[in-house]
Structures are given as structure tokens and as C-alpha cells.
Amino acid sequence: MVNLREMKILRDIQAALARRFRDGCSYLSHEVRNQLFPQSMLLADLRERHPDSADEYDLMQTANGIVSDILKSVLDMAKWESGDMQVNKKFFLPESVFKSVRSYGVEAVKQWDGAVTFALNDDAVPPKTRIKADSTVLTQILTNLVSNSCKFTKAGRITVAASLDDQTLTVIVADTGRGVAEANLAKILKPFAQTRKASDQATGTGLGLPLTVKMVECGHGGTLVLESPGVGQGCRAIVRIPVEATEDVEVVPAPDPLDALWYDPAAIRTKDVLFCDDGAVNRKVTKKIIQRMGLTLDVRADGSDAVAAVDEGKTYVECQCTRSSV
Question: Model-level pTM greater than 0.70?
């Protein structure tokens, strides 16, 4: 009983620390993004006005993008550790995931101008069998692993092999790249741990593999193991995820998330936009962007003021999402 009580206390402490880490990362992400957003908008504007300096502006935009990616990775890590990142497990045909990963891999190896080949083999997965998992997270897991292999495989091949056996999905991502020393195999699965040399062209934050581990372990109760014979001898990432498998479940196609990304400008050209932000620079930049679209803008600095504006009965824009407007 004493040991169980101590274990519970320890878990509670760990959970509290994870929540504090998540909250801190959320605050940091919010504040830094508030500064990056107006910078990105102004840089885009300056690039149009000064095309001779486009390369310099593009360099700054790239730097902003890298910072945003780092923030997103840190925040995602914090959410996984605190248990705040939820998975949505539904039955689906795994071939849909493998199709996305295959397309991603084929494009990713093009950076090496034909020196690296990519192949994905899912023949060991019955074609009509559906599995229950989070297809979006599973796709991210596999593309992360393929991306990692691409960074360190300048010549040779990258292969993905999938199999389904006894309610377990196994996917092996193997490459003939630089490989990893045995002493570093466990190290690179920890956040911010990197083994590359300063002269390496591959870039990263050291969060890709740790995040992938969280998606596998916390998201699906699976395992991720790295194997490598040594430096210069390639590497294998072995993912095993317990799944429910069946051939009898009818799957309702999920709505395409891209449908929410488009709107028809003509349908809202004469409408008002209500924008609320507590950052003065954000309000100024957004106002300029909205006005360029030919729309009128009602800017509020406080949430209560924005709610009051709606309560007053004023009608604001409602974007109609359509693909035909692209």
C-alpha cells in the first residue's frame, strides 16, 4: 500500500509539472507569435516594394518560419507530455496513409538529385482490412521518420515496409545513410539531443524523433525502436502499434480539411470584418491587409468590446468555404 501511495504521489507530481510546462510553452508560443506575425506581414509588403532586395527579405521570412516551427514543436511536446493532445481513433483503410507517405517520400528524396531512391511496400497488409487508429497522427509519425532518414541519407535508398499481424501494425523505415553509434541510439530520442556535426547541412531542432515517440507511445500505446549497426551503416526505425483490425466496418469518409481553407472573396466583398486583438501592431498590420481586400474593418482591442459590437446587431462577414474559388 505504501508503494502504491508513493507511486500515485509521484504520478501526480509529474502530471502537475507537465501541465506547468504546457502552460509555460503555450504562453511563450503566444507571445513570440504575436511578434512574428506583424514582422512577416511587413516583410512581405517590403518585398513587393523593393524587389531588388527579395533575397534578403526571403531569408528573414525563412528565419521567422523556422522560429514558428520550433515553437510549434515545443508546444506539441508539452501537450503530449501533459496528456492534452488527444487522438481520434477511427476505422480506416491503411492504404490511404501509405499513399500519403509514399507521395511524401518520393518528393523528399528529390533533394539529392536521384542519388537516393524511395520505396514503400505495404503488400503484407491485407488490402480490404481496416484498422482503428488516428490516421492523421499515424501519417505524421511515418512522414517524420521518412523526413529524418532523408536528412542523413545523401546516397542509397530509403524503404518503408508495413505489415499487419495479430492486431499489431508494424512499420519499418530503413535507410542506408549515415547511421548512428550504438551509444547515441537512446540519446537522439530525447528532446533537443542531436548527434550531427556542425558541418552537417541537415537542419533541425532535435524534436522530430522525440515528438514521434510521443505520438507512438502516448497516442497509440505503441513502441518505437531505433537500430543501427553503426556509423556509416544506415538506420532502422521500427514502429509497432496495437490496433483493432476488421473487414466488416463501413467507413464514412472524413470531410477534407482543405475545404476549410478556401473562401470566395466575391461573396464577402461588401461586408464588414470584426477583428479583435490586444496587440497594437497586430491590429495595425491586419487592418492594412483587410483594407487591401476591399473590405471594411471594425477593430477592437478588448474581447468584451468585440462581444458588445456583435450584441449591437451589426452584421459581420461569414466566409463561404468552396474549392471553386481557388
Answer: no
